[in-house]
Protein 1
Amino acid sequence: MPTVVLMDVSLSMTRPVSLDGSEEFQRKNLAVHGLNMLFEHMASNYRLEFTSLMAFSSLWELLVPFTRDYNTLQEALSNLEDYDKTCLEAALQGVSNVVQQEWGSACPCQVVLVTDGSLGIGKGSLRHSLQTQKHRGEDKKFPLPFPFPCKLFILCVANAEELQMSDAMDNLEELLRISGGEGQIFTVEGSLCMKSVQAMFGKLIDHAYSAFHAVLHCGNLSSDVQVFPRPEPVVVDEEVEPIPRAVSTDLEIVGFIEISDISSPPVITRHLVLPIAVNKDVDEVGAGATDELEEEPSASQMAGKSPNFCVLLHGSLKVEGMVAVVQLGPEWFGMLYSQADSKKKSNLMLSVFDPGLQPLPWLGKMSHLGPTSEATENPFGEDDSKSPFPVQPPVKRSYAQNITVWIKASGLQTDVQKILRNARKLPDKTQTFYKELNRLRKAALAFGFWELLKGVADLLERECTLLPDSAHPDAAFQLSHAAQQLKLASTGDPQFAGYDHNIIPMHTDFSS
């Protein structure tokens, strides 16, 4: 999950702060100190994270594009210059442009906004932007919410009392709400000093950049691992009282399955699994890289001193072309697999399925899967020529029914014209006429489209009056009968508007 750090370099950030009689610091200096603390933490624990640094005042500037080189980020922080007034809207638009250009609109991103809580003055200020956002055209739309999934963290180099003296806190809370509510506002507790700013950035680290350590089990084998980025709790909307489900710190491998059988399943999130070496002389090593993570452990890192089951698992899955089904919690599963970008880059990845016993319909219930040795006969055949997947449902569904769907007006017009064409060929097309009529009637009743039934009834009565003198007498009776039945159905009376009821041809004494 890439991170954009948005640093306020307006004049208000240069306000001095006296630190216990020592030399004066600017608020910008305190913010830079906190960001250096964040970058050092990410360099140690989130070294595969892509981070970008932007500065803003009335304009915005991309100081460091997305990178994993935290030395470059810290160097750019030390060379920040001071500019003019605050214009947060332009900066947020810049974040949107930079993220979409680099990652598109599907990749989730975290935005860390560091400011002193000053909203700016006049046009372009946050206060003015929020007051006018509902009265704009599409070409001048407010940049929030972003077109990509985002968590917005606002770190104010000011205490809550200072922000509440004005309407700054209310406006920042409104900004967070517009962004989607994913994120948090952090303020300095107590007096403004180096320690209080460190504590504030520490809270951000604990909330958004803390490592997720777990133990991966497979039978009698186990390995300490770090899952990156940290899996977020998932809320199941179908539950009566939804409770967020969190991934367990004990990951249990329950079986293995061919990649061809697992196919390309829908997943909630994807995570990198880093094995943690037991020997202190060996750093934490990854098992490779995804399309966005491009580091592979060297042979010297993995050599010798401490055998690691996670490394063995990664190599086995890569060679055998299989995935490991892993249980993440009660009735919640995922899969471990080797993902490679090239011959030199590969990673052990964890994909999280939707909670439930049947996240992949073609595999059936996860609780019904088991080793082939326990089956009465090999479900794959003696020569692996067949596969038990996809599992066939107990009730065979039929997709041959002609379902009526009107997405565009042209589709509805075509169905009505088909009825009228058959109406003009009565009595020769009596069966086809009533078949199409009943199809339209059922669709109209299903959609609650009563006006359509009344309208088609009027069209049939009009066709009846336009019949030529040479027309068969039965045509007029059938048209009048069909129009009357449609009008009765359009009233919504259950006696005449039954969905399963069909209009049948009127019996007459005319010979064909």
Note: DSSP finds 14 helices and 15 strands in the chain.
Protein 2
Amino acid sequence: MYTSPGKMRETMPQTPIFSSMLGSSCSGQVQPDMGERCVDPVYQDGNLVSGSLEALIERLVPTMDYYPDRTYIFTFLLSSRVFIHPHELLAKVGQICIKQKQQLETGTEAEKENGTVKKIISQMTQNLLMALSARSQYQEIREKFRQPVTDKGTILKTKPQSTQKDILSVCCDPLVLAQQLTYIELERVSNIYPEDLMQIVSHMDSLDNHKCRGDVTKTYNLEAYDNWFNCLSMLVATEICRVVKKKQRTRMVEFFIDVARECFNIGNFNSMMAIISGMNLSPVARLKKTWSKVKTAKFDVLEHHMDPSSNFCNYRTALQGAAQRSQTANSNREKIVIPVFNLFIKDIYFLHKIHTNRLPNGQINFKKFWEISRQINDFLTWKQVECPFEKDKKIQSYLLTAPIYSEEALFIASFESEGPENHMEKDSWKTLRTTLLNRA
């Protein structure tokens, strides 16, 4: 009697899913107790924790009484590039499939079918190599045309005109601006793929001179997203520092505090952190006369959420709350979770650095890759949320193209608004003025 693949999966033994494999974090290096005999692969409490590359590849291929769970397939395909090139993996999987077919069938027809399968696998391998090559070339071309995110502004020689366009003239509603920032975040997050995130592991292995078999390519999508964070931080600082009048400057600071607060409520932690970072830059933080007029209670709450102590414990608690809300949400508005990307990348970095790829017996430390893939899977779930906010081209155009001052220009604008108050600031201001005169 014929059984559909879906029904077969329900009855066949499968590799455990994430929830049964892991808690909230990886507790340490896996040191399986194998006794006198080396078992391959190794299970602990019914969970796969390590194995040789060959054994793990075999677990990828279904048999008559086994079907790999999709979380295993995802984890292995994601982590395998650290040890083997994708086209080599495809070839090995093909060989296993042909071998299984030979064991089940005999005769001329079986040999003919095997020949056909080999041709198909060969063609798939060629297509894969062409796709990988094309992507590499595309990234190289994009790198040549990629605009550096440095100074979009010029060094100020005079104060800007009070009539100069600013963010408040484009959008004076903190909630609307937070929504447009979220739109941009989700749009940029959509360009990040699992293989981009795994390049962190592969690229670091290459830098450390480890024997890494992964495709070591530059992580353009990650860099672009990181550049967006830096741009937003500098834009916030620019908008504040270039305002001439203290009253208006105070209003600008309070506006961005409200925007950051709305970002937090939405679940857009990345924009929130970028805004806070911009207001904490020295040219802004030193404006004591301005800050003395600001109602800082809201800002104090935001900084509490982003307190770096205890490995950003407060932020992680808020992120976990947003993630739980997303799981039970009925609307896309409640499903939004945009983590602080810099911290997300650091978590993967430290997971990779503190847990070895291989155990002392040479087997792959698969428990490590379960945890890395679990975090990446969470990120993929969040990035698939459709933005519930309509795009405002005018606001987004300003956010993405407005002039951004360099650090030097920010300090000049800051000192022109509120003069230096101590010897260190006076020396800095003197050096900046000398630099301006030399350039004139």
Note: The two ends are 88 Å apart (CA to CA).
